Amino acid sequence: xxxxxxxxxxxxASAMLLAGSGAALAQLQVDGKPEAVHVEARDxxxxxxxxxLHDRFGLDYxxxxxxxxxxxxxxxxxxxxxxxxxxxxxxFAMKITPQGIDVLVLRQDRPGQTAVxxxxxxxxxxxxxxxxxxxxxxxxxR
Length: 142
Fold this sequence. Notes:
Layout: H1 3-25, E1 27-33, E2 36-45, H2 46-57, E3 60-63, E4 70-77, H3 79-86, E5 90-97, E6 100-108, E7 117-121, H4 130-137
Parallel strand pairs: 3-6, 5-7
Antiparallel strand pairs: 1-2, 2-4, 5-6
């Protein structure tokens, strides 16, 4: 092989490695179940992370923001806690119902302003049993 040909092969190989490294930088993995979510993100837009949580767990979200902030990290825990950690740096409201989780992403935090994060949980309790009614009637709170 001539020196010129070796240089050409080396240049092509280097270009392929550099072109592939950009794609390798942005990675997202979402696993688990709603009670134990595992998310690994490396330089991924927030929009993509939320879309993956929607596809995997049915997390509903909406926002007027483009959600282009890049996220990197490992997030473990229940879905609502993982979603809150991923939304760090944003003001948001989260509604938790037996049907699922709905998130409204309001805006990105601005320096000098207080962040607002609201979580509303609607718990559906079954009717009280006769024993619970008697216990409650006697002045005890269940």
